[in-house]
Amino acid sequence: MRKTASLIVSLILVLAPGVAYCQPPDSIFRTDRVNALILVLVFSTAILLYTRWARQGRPLFLRKIPGLAAVEEAVGRATEMGRPVLFVPGIDELDQIETIAGVSILGRVAKITAQYDTPLSVPVRYPLVYAAAQEVVEQSYIEVGKRDSYDKDIVRYVAGEQFAFTANVNGYMMRERPATNIYMGAFFAESLLLAETGNAAGSIQIAGTAKPEQLPFFIAACDYTLMGEELYAASAYLSHEPLMLGGLKGQDFIKLLIVVCIILGVVLVTFNLGDTFLSWFKAV
Amino acid sequence: MRTAAPVAVAFLSGVILVISFFFNEEKTVVGGLSQELLNWVIIVGGFTLLLGMVSIIRVNWAAVQRRKENWIYRLFTLIAIFAAAIPSLLPPSWSPLFGRAEGSIYDWLFVYLQAPMMATMFATLAFYIASAAYRAFRARSADATLLLITATLVMLWRVPMGEAFLNLFPGDVPNIINDYIMNGANLAVQRGIIIGAALGAASMSLRIILGIERTYMGKG
Fold this sequence. Notes:
The complex is a heterodimer of chains A (about 280) and B (about 220). With about 280 residues, chain A is α/β, with parallel strands linked by helices. Chain A has helices at about 1-20, 35-55, 65-80, 95-115, 125-145, 160-175, 190-200, 215-220, 230-240, 240-270, 275-280; strands spanning about 85-90, 120-125, 155, 180-185, 205-210, 225.
């Protein structure tokens, strides 16, 4: 059974590049994307398998992410100082996965602020994000039994323009002096404007983004920075739910597969044998 | 129902988008569904704009009513919202000052107030970069010193005076070093982060589609 499965997988992997270049112009199925389909299937299988193992109770090791471990401590500091926590879920639309990751982390942070009765402020740039963030914060307050503490102006729509939004948030930081600033999501040119102002205001700052070009700014100005995949892992990491942690382990497995492919590709290209191998990844 | 309906919508939307990626959008209905769904997002986003407006007005009006600290600025915000919105909504046939065409009040406010203010905000970034660079490049340890040397070399290469200075060195050594830093070490790290982030995004998408991840609804 296992031999048949590996034979089928090998056949697909060998034939896929050939199929990819035989794309008839009026084809219904995009055969030039077969490689991507294979990757999607392998990736989904890995995540589902690890999720299943997690459900069966297998122990899963996750390395410590200091930025996430510091979230509760940073909210605790705000509580002790009697100052608010500022959470910015990025400045992109809700159809961006980084924003969804930011909103997911907001749910966790809102639960902690609700438990400690710490004021929370969530400025947003897009109305769709406003609606989603409001729902998440309200749900978090309800889940910890603090429905009465929930204020619908915790989440506030600020401005649709990037720098108008930044000016407002910077003004808030300098006036209210929040003890903790958390930036999680997609950030662009305003990343350093926000982080430096927060630094000048004396706040503890935790940032997370998947935009590599903004990471140096956050690293320079924030106390903790979640880089790339750590942002997406945050909600699973903070939840401690085996089901969600299983997804992270599946992701690690695919990463290992990619590392193996890169090493193999380097060796093959070095010996001028890599053309066929590289063509497998064109549609991916 | 409060959880089941969003999970079902997320599942259906995700599955449709994934399937449509593999079908020819010109030959099949399924292939064109992804664009259709993205159009829906724009329409839903348009409706929620009203929510945003209500939020701005409610938050600022409450502060003005209670005479909170700096309430006068909040009053200006409210005046600005209505001063920009009302003339832009009125039909241009009534007056050339209405609507959003060139010469209208809305256009004047955008060109002479909003755009320069945004440009000013962006320009202040230079000062923020200077203060952040000062903190990041202080040679406190061996690592920080290495970062300082690397950054100085790369920055020198990006200004005409620095380039002229580096060209004084014999051969092409500074250029090779700069090229190695930017297209070697820097690019390799960036690619590593990008690959990790792409996998993280795909993994999170899958968790959402399958209903494993519900934290975006405040659940779990």
